[in-house]
Write a structure and sequence with these properties.
The protein is an all-alpha fold. The protein is built from 9 helices and no strands. It starts with a helix and ends with a helix. About 0% of the residues have low confidence.
Length: about 220
Amino acid sequence: MKLYIKKNFIINLIGIVLLKLSLDYIYIIFISKIFAYEGFYLNINISKYIESWIALIIIFILLKRLEKHILYITLLLIYILLIIPTITLYGLRDEPSWAFYSMIIPYIIMLLLISTKKVKLRYIAHSKAIAIIISVIVVGVVLIHYILSGGLSHINFDLSKVYELRESDYGISSNSGVFGYINSWATKVFNIFLISIAFLKKKYFYAIIFIFIQVLLL
């Protein structure tokens, strides 16, 4: 078991190192030359470049201890998609230290605060029914708000005019306040969930209704 863990650790570390080297190579050879006019210039700072490698390894070690945690995949994606590119730019573009550490320190603190102890999640009775009811209520509230705010008079099926409508007075007003958040959740989470449940239960009539609502609210 210990041998497996060590082997797994080394393999993952090699993968992270290769990813970092690949990003460095792509930035130096391609991005800095093609997109320099947009601020992606090359200004290597050796001390910061070495510093970036140290940060990369330290964060990897802290992340690895949470490998069995339920949040590990999410934390790993943040590390790969956000932290490593930030680390790459720090040394190759001579980024300000304050900007670099304001990005990685909160992530490191989060890794340190997350406990490695197993957390037992209690099963909520009738959880699926509760989730469906909540989803229907949220989608219903958003749909009613859409109708009352005059949304039916702004129905648009021309995809080329979607952003034009969103930037109009109606689009701005209908997404103001709390509905700026609820509208997004309704279309990206709750209604998608209802569509999925309808197809899973083979309730195609309801699936068509929720798909129509999805098109209406987008």
